[in-house]
Amino acid sequence: MTPTTAPTPEPPVIFPLMQPLLRTLFVLTTALVSVATVPAATPASAAKQPLTKITLQLDWVAEPQHGGIYQAQVRGFFAAEGLDVTIVPGGPNAFVTQKVATNQAQLGQGDSTDLLQKIAVGLPLLSVAAVFQDDPSGLLINPSSSVRRFEDLQGKTVIARPEWTFLALLKKKYGVTVNVVPQSFSVAAFLGDKEAIQQGYFIAEPYFIEKAGGAKPRFLSSWDAGFRAYAVLFTNRKFARENPEALRAFMRAYVKGWRDYLEGDPAAAHAAMKLTNSSIDDTFALASRQLILDEKLVTGRDADGGLANIGQLSTRRFATQITQLEEIGLLAKGKVTPAQAMTTEFLPSSK
After folding, report:
1. Could you tell me whether strands 83-88 and 137-141 are parallel, antiparallel, or unpaired per DSSP bridges?
2. Which fold has domain 51-135+229-341?
3. Given a cut of 70, is residue 16 above it in pLDDT?
4. Contact (Cβ atoms closer than 8 angstroms) between residue 86 and residue 54
5. What pTM was computed for the model?
6. Sign of CA pseudo-dihedral 169, 172, 174, 177
7. At a CB cut-off of 8 Å and minimum separation 6, what does 240 contact?
8. 21 or 225: whose pLDDT is higher?
9. CA 202, 160, 299, 107 torsion: positive or negative?
């Protein structure tokens, strides 16, 4: 059976007055379809943008004192901010200030009082965030030693970095003179001398002393002598001037990293540390992190801000440090001001 062909429909009748209206409707419809088919910006497409490279030079080998930095790296916080961050472990000869001043590294970690002295001699450095609100440096003292207070240090031998600013403050404030033996960055000398006194971080060296069979040392902290240096992140002024948004992005990730390291699971950050520092284990990492928490080193031992205080720097604290350095003769009077040494402009708002 031959199929029946359907009749061809008659073309619609379009009155002349309707033609302009139909043309307008056609244009509008086409435009709407075009807009609807344009792909929206997504995180995936944004991720295809080139990442901004930043090298961060640490002051020491990877340890929990760098916990927030490693947490931001392993949790992807830096990458989410469009940054490709390379973390370079430090050590006795890391030359952090020189590398940052010459832009071999864009950020570095160090002691705020050391930075003040470097700025005074012309290095174009700028503190941009706190790592620790109070630097945990001090004197490790063998429990057999007769030293109980700073005044007892007169004539004693101290294993330390000869340039350590705190030694000059001890002499000025307490009138004590000590014999300085350059530090070898080992606890061996401390273990072999019952009268030993050594510069150290109370969140690190005591663990290794006990692990090596020594007795738990006593500790005289620098802040108990009124010397409250920050551990800081710093950059060079040229990088800060030319890359403000990259610095703000870094600080957002950095602050988030510390918050997550303190409140969350630090296992991945500790694993990343162990890749470059085989001398640490999980027991040390967890113990050191707990001391950081207990002493509120990141949030501030006397701060009311809690986690909102992460990274914050105080102009008043810097002014006090400058005055102390001037009084002990390590800074010429009026050579450096807080405004020359630090800024909080790149930190996320704590509000």
Report:
1. unpaired
2. D-Maltodextrin-Binding Protein; domain 2 (3.40.190)
3. no
4. yes
5. 0.84
6. positive
7. 126, 128, 247, 343, 346
8. 225
9. negative
